[in-house]
């Protein structure tokens, strides 16, 4: 063999090609192949030998061509076999590539077939020889003609056939990457490329996970040829499927307690991370790819998934896409929340569409997945989190006040989006060390800089971070210290939130505590009032949280933020002693505040009680401070009246008088502290004896305080109003300084009365004489409050608000319980004293209602325990059961006497309280609603109910019974306010029922029955009842048919716009009568608006689906189009609405709101009909199908039943307006100019809008008629010419009037034109 090889080499080097040819011809094919193989395997001089063979085999001779083909056919499998050294194989392929163009067409065809067969049987594992294939295909394409079967094909066609058969065949997973790489060098048409890309994407599922990133890389390189969108969507959808499979396996694994993972999670995440890097790199280089990528998400968020969210966030690191990506994600998040809200609120949509895909869940999944080393995603997550919080956080209200809704549950889509931002940042903070510093810095920066807008959402996030990772936070404590420097300039609410959040850290970090104290000391002397208040807040917080040795374990107090994760307690033995010195030092700082403004003192008084409860060792200091402060205003001479000096409580500045010392709050704080100490010491003395010194000191201030309070009570009872310079003749107007002073005095005196009443009630221990004294105190209080009410009612100045009661929530709860429910024998006599005074009972109830209202509005109440939600909730439960008992057990007939007076009955007060409790509970403690209802012990009569829904329904039945009793009486006995309250309570309670439960159905049936049987002419009650009916109905089924019945009732009650037409009498719901019809019409129209919202949403959704489904076959989608449930539902809904509006449009509605609203809803209906028409235009353009019959009927209905009526209604509305305008002018000329012109302006805006939307609708109908070849305009009548109308009847009347004198005519003309001229100016 060697001899042949050497011979070929030597001849090749020589000049004579003829000899070389001759020698090669003498060799048999086998000899030649063996020589070549040996040479290749040894790797020596194989290149020279091949060159020699090619040199001696001229392509023009058939022998030479065959020999060349033989060499190719032999060497290609040899290179692929893997027996050769890599560089030898590369050399051989390189040489073969150079000579390919010399091969004949038939040889090329044979070689191509060889490749295709090898690929089909999976022999192209190493992919070395595949580099040659593109060269062969390119050469093939250049051939003129090739024999194929019996005929001939051009080279281009032949190549197409080859590629087709290649992509249709089965590929070995091993060679997918090589083939994809190979196709980059093959010139492909767009169809071939698409075919190829689809084939490669189908192969994804067959590949090993580790092979996917290199394949993606090759695909992205291939995308330079085109098919960018398809490639990206394929990659994303592959990972979406993988994620879903992995998630399901994980669930199955958890359920069966075994590992069934075909895809290991960490491996999948790492592969995803690598793929994301590849794609981002490709997008950086190819902006067209980036544009395609973003475009695919712009239409709908339906194709988002955790992988694509991560990809988007990584792309956001490229500057030119940053803004687009965040806007896109923001839009997707808010749209997803809005859609979810819309679907939850409507049974119609729930039945029509499958479950909702939540973008929020995807984003949180991305955060979770990013723990697998996705550093390129984390930065985007942080930015997106803050972007959502900044965009959707609470906004400042008017005058910079924050309009914060109830904290607790995120209800609106914006609140949910803001909450999502917070969750992302919190999870990110826990998982990723590198971004912690940045998150913390950004949160603290926002707390400091955003002083004009509310920052509660950032405070919540900061507080969560502190709780979840206190030790991590200590590493960046310098950032927190920097924030402390700004405390004096921050709004008070921010300071309170910030200090509350940092509290667990202060216990662990000495340096943090010291820096805070320094800042607070400076703040004590701040020139800003808010700065000083911040200092007081901070110091009180410190006092509450640094326990002094020997303090009682305060079982009653629950710490707002537990620091259970902080497992460190620095030098615990030294701690408590040091704490004592530290606390006493703070107290001495706080004493300075007692000389400052009333606001600062007030904060101090409200805080002392909490401090005492948490840190009972500070009792003597606190009590001494309070005692010395009380002494300043107390009159020690026992015979002098009044017992307090009110002069020093006010201060004057120029002619302004203002409060200097909130005396009533001071006494209230003292009383509560004293009571608490006495209770705890009574409990403690049973357990152990204390040291005598402390005892004596304590007894000292206790007895002195008790003496002062007793003396105050005695003398306050004796005091007449004249002693305080307040009597009926005193001035109380807030316009003068004397009036302001008297007002302040009155409020202080009333406050003192209340505090003393609470003190005496507790001290009395159900003693009859003490209760009589208490009642005398109340009469003094009542007399003064009556004078205040009377005076403020008369004055034209700013009206006087009832001052907030100083009774504590706990006391009010106890008081109403004993007044109504206490049946014990021993207390009967004493309580009868209080019960006998109707005024006192009413007062107790009204204070209870006032406290509940404060809780509903702000989330806490004044006085002790007001800040602790657990305790306030317990008081709520107690009050609920008392009010419920009082309302259900004492019939209102007993209270008939009170009816003659112009004020609400006690039953009504109870109902108001219950309504406020239920709403407050739903807003503040939504998860505790069942607990609240189960504590109401009215249920004792019935069987025990464990089920929450049953308990809830039990109370619903109670209130239904009460309402039924109200309605079964005559109209003169009907108490409208009480009935409205009952309906409101039923509305709140029915929200707790599940729409699928049988109780819900019973509730709807009952409401429908009441609406059908009640005929009282009370529009407010009617509004409440119909609102309840509609809100329930929406969750049960679509309200369209109900709306139609209501519209028919309204039409038959109010009559037709054409007075000569007799309206068919309908009475589905007797609650609709002449008086209530207008109210009902407004409600119906607002419900129509909601239904239109849903229909609009469905059409838009269908439109975006249709545009993304264009690739589907036209026939299939057309067949689906006729049966499409969404289109069918939309058409039916609109049909029913058109019929309902047809009734309303013929109704003689009163001019004003109702007319304007109807015009608005009509124009909206036409706009939505236009949207539907546009959708069908789009369908016809892409599919050339026929229109569904239902849609044609809908168009016919709109043309015959609605459009003509709209025009006559417009005429009616315009004439109606001018008539009422004229009547008014005769009565009140000056007022009507402004009112009538404003009304006309509003009116005239609605009318052109309606006409425009009708004409737009008709315009697009013409377009659709042309596209679909169906004449839809045959159903439309020509519209009225509105510019020039002659009404015969009006003309006759006018001609008759002309006979009257000219002068009156002229004066009327000028009058009638006034508002019109005004309108023109505007």
UniProtKB/TrEMBL annotation:
Taxonomic source organism: Characodon lateralis
Stretches with biased composition (Basic and acidic residues): 1303-1316
Matches recorded under InterPro entries: FANCI, FANCI_HD1, FANCI_HD2, FANCI_S1, FANCI_S1-cap, FANCI_S2, FANCI_S3, FANCI_S4
Source organism, top-level taxon: Eukaryota
Protein name, per record: FA complementation group I
Domain FANCI helical residue range list: 288-369, 554-789
Region of interest (Disordered), residue spans: 1293-1322
FANCI solenoid domain span: 66-283, 377-540, 806-1029, 1043-1292
Domain FANCI solenoid 1 cap: 5-56
């Amino acid at each position: 063999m060697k001899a042949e090889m050497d011979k070929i080499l030597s001849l090749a080097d020589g000049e004579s090609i003829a000899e070389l040819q001759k020698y090669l011809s003498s060799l048999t094919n086998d000899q030649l192949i063996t020589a070549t193989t040996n040479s290749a395997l040894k790797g020596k001089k194989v290149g020279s030998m091949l060159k020699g063979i090619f040199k001696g085999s001229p392509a023009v001779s058939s022998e030479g061509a065959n020999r060349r083909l033989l060499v190719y056919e032999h060497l290609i499998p040899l290179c692929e076999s893997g027996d050769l050294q890599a560089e030898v194989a590369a050399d051989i392929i390189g040489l073969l590539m150079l000579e390919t163009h010399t091969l004949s067409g038939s040889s090329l065809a044979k070689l191509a077939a060889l490749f295709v067969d090898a690929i089909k049987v999976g022999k192209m594992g190493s992919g070395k020889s595949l580099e040659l294939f593109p060269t062969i295909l390119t050469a093939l394409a250049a051939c003129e003609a090739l024999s194929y079967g019996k005929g001939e094909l051009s080279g281009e066609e032949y190549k197409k056939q080859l590629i087709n058969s290649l992509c249709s065949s089965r590929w070995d997973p091993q060679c997918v990457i090589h083939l994809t790489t190979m196709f980059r060098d093959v010139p492909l048409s767009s169809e071939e490329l698409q075919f190829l890309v689809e084939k490669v994407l189908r192969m994804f599922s067959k590949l090993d996970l580790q092979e996917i990133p290199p394949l993606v890389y090759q695909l992205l390189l291939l995308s330079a040829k085109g098919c960018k969108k398809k490639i990206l969507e394929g990659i994303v959808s592959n990972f979406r499927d993988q994620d879903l499979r992995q998630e399901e396996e994980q669930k199955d694994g958890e359920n069966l307690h075994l590992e069934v993972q075909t895809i290991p999670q960490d491996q999948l995440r790492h592969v995803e991370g690598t793929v994301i890097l590849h794609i981002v790199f490709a997008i950086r280089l190819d902006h067209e790819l980036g544009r395609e990528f973003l475009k695919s998400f712009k239409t709908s968020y339906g194709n988002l998934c955790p992988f694509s969210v991560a990809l988007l966030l990584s792309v956001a690191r490229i500057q030119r896409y940053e803004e687009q990506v965040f806007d896109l994600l923001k839009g997707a998040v808010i749209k997803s929340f809005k859609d979810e809200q819309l679907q939850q609120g409507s049974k119609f949509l729930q039945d029509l569409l499958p479950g909702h895909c939540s973008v929020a869940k995807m984003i949180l999944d991305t955060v979770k997945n990013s723990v697998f080393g996705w550093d390129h995603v984390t930065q985007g997550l942080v930015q997106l989190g803050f972007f959502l919080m900044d965009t959707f956080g609470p906004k400042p209200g008017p005058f910079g006040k924050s309009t914060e809704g109830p904290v607790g549950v995120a209800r609106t889509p914006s609140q949910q989006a803001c909450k999502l931002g917070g969750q992302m940042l919190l999870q990110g903070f826990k998982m990723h060390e590198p971004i912690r510093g940045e998150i913390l810095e950004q949160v603290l920066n926002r707390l400091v800089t955003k002083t004009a807008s509310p920052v509660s959402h950032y405070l919540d996030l900061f507080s969560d971070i502190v709780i979840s990772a206190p030790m991590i936070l200590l590493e960046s404590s310098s950032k927190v210290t920097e924030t402390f420097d700004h405390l004096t300039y921050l709004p008070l609410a921010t300071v309170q939130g910030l200090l509350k959040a940092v509290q667990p850290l202060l216990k662990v970090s000495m340096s943090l505590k010291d820096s805070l104290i320094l800042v607070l000391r400076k703040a004590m002397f701040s020139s800003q009032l808010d700065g000083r208040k911040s200092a007081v807040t901070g110091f009180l917080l410190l006092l509450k949280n640094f326990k002094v040795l020997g303090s009682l374990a305060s079982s009653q107090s629950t710490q707002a933020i537990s620091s259970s994760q902080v497992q460190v307690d620095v030098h615990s033995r030294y701690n408590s002693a040091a704490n004592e010195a530290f606390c006493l030092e703070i107290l001495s700082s706080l004493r300075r505040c007692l000389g400052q403004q009333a606001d600062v003192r007030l904060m101090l008084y409200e805080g002392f009680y909490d401090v005492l409860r948490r840190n009972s060792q500070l009792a003597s200091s606190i009590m001494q401070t309070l005692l010395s402060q009380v002494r300043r205003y107390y009159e020690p001479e026992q015979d002098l009246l009044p017992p307090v000096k009110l002069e020093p409580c006010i201060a004057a500045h120029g002619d302004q008088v203002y409060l200097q010392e909130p005396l009533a709050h001071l006494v209230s704080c003292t009383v509560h502290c004293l009571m608490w100490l006495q209770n705890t010491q009574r409990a403690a003395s049973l357990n152990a004896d204390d040291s005598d010194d402390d005892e004596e000191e304590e007894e000292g201030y206790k007895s002195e305080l008790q003496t002062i309070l007793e003396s105050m009570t005695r003398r306050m009872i004796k005091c007449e109003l004249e002693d305080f310079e307040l009597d009926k003749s005193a001035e109380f107007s807030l316009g003068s300084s004397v009036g302001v002073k008297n007002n302040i005095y009155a409020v202080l005196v009333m406050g003192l009365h209340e505090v003393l009443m609470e003190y005496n009630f507790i001290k009395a221990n159900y003693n009859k004489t003490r209760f009589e004294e208490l009642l005398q105190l109340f009469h003094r209080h009542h007399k003064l409050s009556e004078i205040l009410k009377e005076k403020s009612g008369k004055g034209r100045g700013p009206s006087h608000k009832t001052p907030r009661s100083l009774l504590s929530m706990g006391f009010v709860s106890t008081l109403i319980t004993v007044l109504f429910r206490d049946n014990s024998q021993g207390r009967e006599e004493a309580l009868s004293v209080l019960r006998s005074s109707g005024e006192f009972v009413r007062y107790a109830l009204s204070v209870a209602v006032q406290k509940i209202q404060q809780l509903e509005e702000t989330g806490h109440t004044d006085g002790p325990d007001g800040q602790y939600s657990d305790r306030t909730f317990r008081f709520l439960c107690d009050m609920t059961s008392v009010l419920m008992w009082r309302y259900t057990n004492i019939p209102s007939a007993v209270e008939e006497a009170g009816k003659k007076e112009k004020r609400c009955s006690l039953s009504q007060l109870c109902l108001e309280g219950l309504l406020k409790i239920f709403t407050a509970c739903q807003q503040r403690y939504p998860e505790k609603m069942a607990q609240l209802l189960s504590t109401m012990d009215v249920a004792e009569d019935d069987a025990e109910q464990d089920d929450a829904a049953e308990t809830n329904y039990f109370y619903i039945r109670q209130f239904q019974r009460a309402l039924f009793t109200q309605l079964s009486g005559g109209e003169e006995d009907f108490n409208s306010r009480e009935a409205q309250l009952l309906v409101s309570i039923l509305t709140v309670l029915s929200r707790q029922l599940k729409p699928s439960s049988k109780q819900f159905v019973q509730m709807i049936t009952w409401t429908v029955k009441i609406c059908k049987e009640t005929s009282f002419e009370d529009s407010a009650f009617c509004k409440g009842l119909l609102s309840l009916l509609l809100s329930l109905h929406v969750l049960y089924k679509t309200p369209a048919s109900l709306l139609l019945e209501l519209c028919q009732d309204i039409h038959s009650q109010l009559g037709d716009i054409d007075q000569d037409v007799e309206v068919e009498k309908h009475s589905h719901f007797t609650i609709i009568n002449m008086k209530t019809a207008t109210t009902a019409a407004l409600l119906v129209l607002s419900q129509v608006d909601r239904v239109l919202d849903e229909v609009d949403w469905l059409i838009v959704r269908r439109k975006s689906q249709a545009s993304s489904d264009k690739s589907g076959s036209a026939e299939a989608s057309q067949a689906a189009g006729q049966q499409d449930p969404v289109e069918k539902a939309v058409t039916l809904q609109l049909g029913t609405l058109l019929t309902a509006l047809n009734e309303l449009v013929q109704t003689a509605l009163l001019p004003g709101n109702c007319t304007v609203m109807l015009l608005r809803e009509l124009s909206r209906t036409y706009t939505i009909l236009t949207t539907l028409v546009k959708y069908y235009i789009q369908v016809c353009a892409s599919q050339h199908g026929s229109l569904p019959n239902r849609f044609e009927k809908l168009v016919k209905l709109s043309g015959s039943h609605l459009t003509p009526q709209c025009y006559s209604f417009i005429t009616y509305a315009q004439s109606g307006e001018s008539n009422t305008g004229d009547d008014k002018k005769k009565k009140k000329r000056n007022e009507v100019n402004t009112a009538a012109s404003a009304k006309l302006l509003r009116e005239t805006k609605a009318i052109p809008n309606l006409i425009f939307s009708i004409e737009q609708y008709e315009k697009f109908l013409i377009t659709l008629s042309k596209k679909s070849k169906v004449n839809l305009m045959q159903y439309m009548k020509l519209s009225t010419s509105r510019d020039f109308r002659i009404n015969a009847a009006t003309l006759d009347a006018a001609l008759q009037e002309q006979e009257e004198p000219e002068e009156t005519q002229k004066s009327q003309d000028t009058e009638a034109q006034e508002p019109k001229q005004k309108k023109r100016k505007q």
